[in-house]
Amino acid sequence: MTEGFRLRMAAVLAAGLLAGGCVTSQTTSNEGAGLPPGGTGGGSQQASRDRSTSPTSSATSEPEEIRRRARIRLELAATHYQQQNFPLALQEADQSVRLDAGFSASYGMLGLIYMAIGDRAKADENFNRAIALDPKDAELNNNFGWYLCQTGRQQEALAYFNRALEDRLYATPAKPLHNAGICALQIGDEAAAENYFLRSFQVDPANAVAMYNLAQLYLKRRNHERAKFYSDRLMNTYQPNAETLWLALRVARAAGNQDYTAQLASQLRQRFPGSREAELLQRGAFGD
Q1: Is 0.70 surpassed by the pTM of this model?
Q2: Helix residue spans in 54-189 (DSSP H)
Q3: How far apart are CA 25 and CA 31, in angstroms?
Q4: Domains in the chain, please, with CATH?
Q5: I need a labelling partner for 183 at 20 to 30 A (CA). Which of 58, 135, 173, 176 fits?
């Protein structure tokens, strides 16, 4: 895997789950951090239900009402964060914290926002506060691990990804697994990375990040059969983009399949003429 692709994978932090439609830069990119607990998983519907609940309901205690209001602010912060409107996201997350200082998800949201705007000190502060309040929360551990991985603390990050995986009820275990794989690659531990990506693929056979990275690893090792398996599956699962076409082309070329190589080269030139991958093709820079 090229360093440039790793950086592009690291750049997309927003929405959590891999999209199920066409392949975009988000689909093959590592999305890394998800949204905080309470701000994901049908959150907009929950927020709507929360808004429809009367604050004066006799069935709602004062702490429950405070948490309900804080969660509404968190939902708004998460929406602005996904839209990359970080000033408004920060404003709403701050309001959530002011309403309920014990709500770990709000600090997790602040950590993501400060991570996105490059304020490492405040990201550290808020992620640590979130983890202190809820040390077993899988999404918080995944998000903090991703943050640590992106700030050069890969060994620490792996511990948080593994902690996220201890939650057997975590809905998206493929995410910390493929995040850990990318983190392991960054420190040159290909064996650990392979293990994480294989586990990610096992729990989610449609995981584009796992398929892409496994194909890259096996191509590098000249294990053409396994590289082809993951590359073909990626191409058949998602609408190809420039990066996945370039990967499939290099796999086909390494395996000596000239006809398929030519077909993929034609697709790449026609569909993505201005892409970095088309430029590499033009220069014959196959990286082998």
Answers
A1: yes
A2: 62-82, 86-99, 104-117, 120-133, 138-150, 154-165, 174-186
A3: 10
A4: 38-133 (1.25.40.10)
A5: 135
Decide if 28 contacts 241 (C-beta within 8 A): yes
| SS (HEC) of 6-49 | HHHHHHCCCCCCCCCCCCCHHHHCCCCCCCCCCCCCCHHHHHHH
- Are 34 and 40 in contact by the 8 Å Cβ rule? The answer is yes
Nearest CA to 137 out of 54, 221, 38, 213 is that of: 38
User: Could you state, in chain order, the average pLDDT of each consecutive group of 10 residues for the chain (288 residues)?
Assistant: 35 29 38 54 40 50 93 96 96 96 96 96 97 96 96 96 95 96 97 98 97 97 97 96 97 96 97 96 87
Q: Are residues 208 and 18 in contact, defined by beta-carbon separation less than 8 angstroms?
A: yes
Look over the chain and give the mean of its residue pLDDT values, rounded to a whole number. 84
Per-residue CA distances from 38 to 82, 108, 115, 281 (Å): 15, 10, 19, 45
Question: Hey, is 85 helix, strand or coil?
Answer: coil
CB 209 within 8 A of CB 29: yes
pLDDT for res 60: 77
- Nearest by Cα to 67 from 53, 81, 80: 53
